[in-house]
Amino acid sequence: MFVKPLGADAELRPLEPWQAEEFFAHMERGREFIGQHIGFADRAKDLESARELLQGYADKAASDTGRIFGIWLDGELVGGVLFRVMDVPQGRAEVGCWLEPAATGRGLITRASKVLIDWAIRERGVHRVEWQVSSENAPSIAVARRLGMSRDGVLRSYFLHRGVRQDLEVWSVLAPEWES
């Protein structure tokens, strides 16, 4: 297992099914905050579903179609980043993120996302990395901007979240832009 430092007090490492208890405890701490804009928190509603979610990403990693990583701050799991979708033959990947409230404002998501994007482009040869975000999620949009992504467009009323239709913004960075 690798550990990638994200500064003096934080690290990025794979999040695996055997860590379901720690992951579930983290989701319990941040469920309402995390779930404001993404369904991820609602999917890990108990220990069994948390384990299933992590197993799903372990299966994606085995088939090279996705991956999930946790962010630990001072030894505690506080969030993560993931390749929700990876299509290496087509040169496309979608990065996603989440963070519990106590860890916001430290640049952790931006730093962790840079590690993922850099790996996808430089090591895996991915040409296009996307960031899909609810138009209501201003902090996530700010991360996309900090990562140097361009806003490709808005898919109006694209998905239903907690009973409310949401617009979805699509942001992206292309390999030549990232490498320059």
Automatic annotation (TrEMBL):
Residue stretches making up the N-acetyltransferase domain: 10-177
PROSITE patterns documented for this protein: GNAT
Annotated protein name in UniProt: N-acetyltransferase
Phylogenetic classification of the source organism: Bacteria, Bacillati, Actinomycetota, Actinomycetes, Pseudonocardiales
